[in-house]
Amino acid sequence: MRCVTRSLITNKINIARTVINPIETIFKFMKKSVVNCDSLYSQDLLTALNKIELDYVKKMSERKYLEISQDMDTFLALEYKLGVNISSETCQKLKILLEIARDALSGALHSRTLFTDVTELTIKNTILEKRIEDILSGKNELQAMDDTCGEFVITKTFKLAAVYSYYITLYGLPAFGVGFDTTKLTLLVDILRRQGIDPFR
Description:
- The structure is a single chain.
- This protein has three domains: 1-30, no CATH class; 41-114, no CATH class; 153-201, no CATH class.
- Helices cover 54% and strands 4% of the residues.
- The protein is mainly alpha-helical.
- Strand 1 (3-6) and strand 2 (13-14) form a beta hairpin.
- Strands 2-1-3 form a three-stranded antiparallel beta sheet, with no helix packed on it.
- Helix 5 packs across helix 6 (182-194).
- The protein has helices at residues 37-40, 43-61, 72-88, 92-137, 162-171, 182-194; strands at 3-6, 13-14, 23-25.
């Protein structure tokens, strides 16, 4: 460590050590270099990075996949802005950060797509399992009444609409007083209609 001294008599700064001068480190006299974030990126890029963080990456990290925007115009504009800045950036460290932001943006959009695909495949799987169960249980068999005497029991069964049945199968029964999540219901209605199933039947 390099040392600096200051004379008590003349108040001059000296690099050489003397018996008269107190010793102080050179760091006390050095000015800290301050990096201004505004000078690193343009305001447009900072706005784009904030939008990517709040509307895409944060929602992905919180697993709020259905809240991630699917607006392709916004997505493509953000990706283009990052691409232009990556190609013009000379500092390798900043370039890597911009590439991470671009990859996170793409990952967020893909995570929403994957979440939707998993939900759709789970519904298809449930439909197929139900068909197999119906076939194996003999639901297609008809039995004629052999005997008309004896006791008869009447029971009443309730059947939920398909969208609610699948909701409970996939996400469980909602807590008392909370109700069904409308975003998830909307996704299920869309998937069931694509499968040719009336969601409210």
